[in-house]
């Protein structure tokens, strides 16, 4: 689980890379669940929340940039 403080300190490029990594992990977890190989079922929800955190910070930054 990624802390919001850690996310806010990253640049937009780093956040984009993190978002891609999280989406890949989410895909792999969904694939594992479909094949019955998933052991850490709580990880799916944690990854979804991390994706939401990253997208929220990116949206906040784009709104502040639009205002400026």
From TrEMBL:
The record, for InterPro entries, names: Ribosomal_protein_uL29, Ribosomal_uL29, Ribosomal_uL29_sf
Q: What SUPFAM superfamilies does UniProt report for this protein, alphabetically?
A: Ribosomal protein L29 (L29p)
Q: Does the keyword Nucleotidyltransferase apply?
A: no
Superkingdom of the organism of origin: Bacteria
Coiled coil feature spans:
none
Which keywords does this Swiss-Prot/TrEMBL entry list?
Ribonucleoprotein, Ribosomal protein
Enumerate the Pfam families for this protein. Answer: Ribosomal_L29
Q: Got a GO cellular component term for this one?
A: ribosome
> What protein family is recorded?
Belongs to the universal ribosomal protein uL29 family.
State the PANTHER family in the record. Answer: 60S RIBOSOMAL PROTEIN L35/50S RIBOSOMAL PROTEIN L29 (PTHR10916), LARGE RIBOSOMAL SUBUNIT PROTEIN UL29C (PTHR10916:SF0)
Protein name per the record: Large ribosomal subunit protein uL29
Organism in which the protein naturally occurs: Roseococcus pinisoli
Lineage, uppermost ranks: Bacteria, Pseudomonadati, Pseudomonadota, Alphaproteobacteria, Acetobacterales
């Amino acid at each position: 689980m990624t802390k919001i403080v850690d996310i806010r300190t990253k640049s937009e490029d780093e956040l984009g890379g993190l978002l891609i990594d999280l989406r890949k992990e989410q895909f792999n977890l969904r694939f594992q669940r479909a094949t019955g190989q998933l052991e850490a079922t709580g990880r799916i929800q944690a990854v979804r929340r991390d994706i939401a955190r990253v997208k929220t910070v990116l949206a906040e930054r784009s709104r502040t940039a639009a205002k400026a």
